[in-house]
Amino acid sequence: AQNTESGYLCALAIAQRKPILYLLPLGNMIPDEIKLLQSNPQVSKLLMVKFFQENNIESRLAEFIDLLENGRGDWELPTIKFTWRISPRIERYLRWKTVNTKKTKADWLREYLLKEIIDKDEEYKGFLRNI
Asked: What gap in Å lies between CA 4 and CA 20, rounded to an integer?
């Protein structure tokens, strides 16, 4: 993609708070449009610029995918709204579980899902390796 087009696509992704991996061949200069995006502290959290050689492009992609899957603090903010109905029993449990914490019920559930279900699901990990 031309520099202006890649700058536009990065800006579009940033507007939607999507993490971006901007790969450049080793030795290339970072385009001015990308430097401008990097100069914004909020934007720079979403924009990762990496240089690659032919022999390490796959590892650069794998590193980025790993960051997406395992989280990077500033990428982990929930952005997808998911509404569901729970029983009074579940609500009582969540209230009890979070009463002496500084976590909301939603935050506790997100953390529990990540640590106790997703991180331990070997079948899912295998699926991710084959993407």
From this structure: 16
